[in-house]
Amino acid sequence: MNIPLAAAPHAVPAEADAYKHVAGNLRTVLDRIAAAARRAGRRPEEVTLVAVSKTHPAAAVQAALAAGQLHFGENRVQEAAQKFPALRAAHPSLRLHIIGGLQTNKARDAVRIADVIESLDRPRLADAIADAIQKEGRAPALLIQVNVGDEAQKSGISRADTDRFVEACRGRFGAALAGLMCIPPADADPAPHFAWLAGCAARHGLPVVSMGMSGDFETAIAHGATHVRVGTAVFGARG
């Protein structure tokens, strides 16, 4: 799933003037992604930036779109449903990733609006997504979220159950199952967790490995990330 980092610039709406810093931040992050990829012996275009726009207004997203950014991540389906339909109408190439924990009763809304759901983490949610795909007649790309640190407070399938869950989801969703996602423990070296996730994805022939955020995305790239989810370094502090 080789997705370009950026696309041609769009016109900047007047309401985006308060977010002029976003274009410069994007350039800096993309430069860091490119440098990290080269250090790892990889091509920069192998890594896709997902700009995490959760809690930021549509004007911030418009500023990023004007700078060529196409992939955006949102935690909450409700917020995404309010923010992105108009943005997508103006920018058909926009790609929306749902990256936060997903309740089963929000699965249909997520399937309706998202291009990628990165937080498939349990059998009941798989059931709800499968039902929603049938009803909506569209299938977003799906990533299984793995709780790589086996932390009680975090969402994600356990490491021990990952292989079995991947195979079950592959049988159910086919090519829509695109890869794996993780958030490593905050107080631990992320490198071993990133290496484990990339190895698991490779073992199952899954092309997408979504890992790494503002504080550790360069380490994630060194260990095989294909997608990095960066918010603060692009948009600044959350709104």
UniProtKB/TrEMBL annotation:
Species of the source: Limobrevibacterium gyesilva
InterPro entries, per database record: Ala_racemase_N, PLP-binding_barrel, PyrdxlP_homeostasis
Sequence similarity: Belongs to the pyridoxal phosphate-binding protein YggS/PROSC family.
Modification sites for N6-(pyridoxal phosphate)lysine: 54
Superkingdom of source: Bacteria
Repeat as UniProt keyword: no
UniProt keyword terms in alphabetical order: Pyridoxal phosphate
Record-annotated Alanine racemase N-terminal domain positions: 30-238
Official protein name in the record: Pyridoxal phosphate homeostasis protein
Biological role: Pyridoxal 5'-phosphate (PLP)-binding protein, which is involved in PLP homeostasis.
NCBIfam families: YggS family pyridoxal phosphate-dependent enzyme
HAMAP family, per the entry: PLP_homeostasis
Cofactor: pyridoxal 5'-phosphate
GO molecular function: pyridoxal phosphate binding
